Amino acid sequence: xxxxxxxxxxxxxxxxxxxxxxxxxxxxxxxxxxxxxxxxxxxxxxxxxxxxxxxxxxxxxxxxxxxxxxxxxxxxxxxxxxxxxxxxxxxxxxxxxxxxxxxxxxxxxxxxxxx
Amino acid sequence: xxxxxxxxxxxxxxxxxxxxxxxxxxxxxxxxxxxxxxxxxxxxxxxxxxxxxxxxxxxxxxxxxxxxxxxxxxxxxxxxxxxxxxxxxxxxxxxxxxxxxxxxxxx
Lengths: 115, 107
Prior knowledge:
The complex is a heterodimer of chains A (115) and B (107). Chain A is mainly beta and 115 residues long.
């Protein structure tokens, strides 16, 4: 079955750029949309955005000015970039695949923004 | 943006008892509603999509129902591994949104 493995820097300073990548294995890369979600400490889940195999992307309106999701079909990977981070961006970031609902999920990456 | 409201925020249940979790949407999401289970330190796991379709590996004690704006997740007989946080999520419109979660605790 499809499995996701994510990686990227976990400690950032304010104003830096968050960069995470998610690798897809074990199944069809073209058959899903690829999504990033985050979960601030002790809080619920927030949809950041998604991209399809063709590179068409959609972002949460509250983050749209700072986020880019890209896809590398040659490597079966997709990536998240979030610019100008602040403490409010501290969260566990998850990648996931799906067509509306989310399955599978990556293991999560804890990102802390602190000076 | 569709606001998803889950209630109660927490629920204390004894093993073997039934648990009923509710999710309300601020406008109709038809049947485009999913439920997830999250345990501490883990990623969420899909339980149900399409309001009532159990995902692969979801035990039959989990059932979903509802339509439009009112949805329910029922766990018929709670097992020890079911104590967790449960989230609903709509995928009828953009942006996709999640409820705030219901924590199911051991009584």
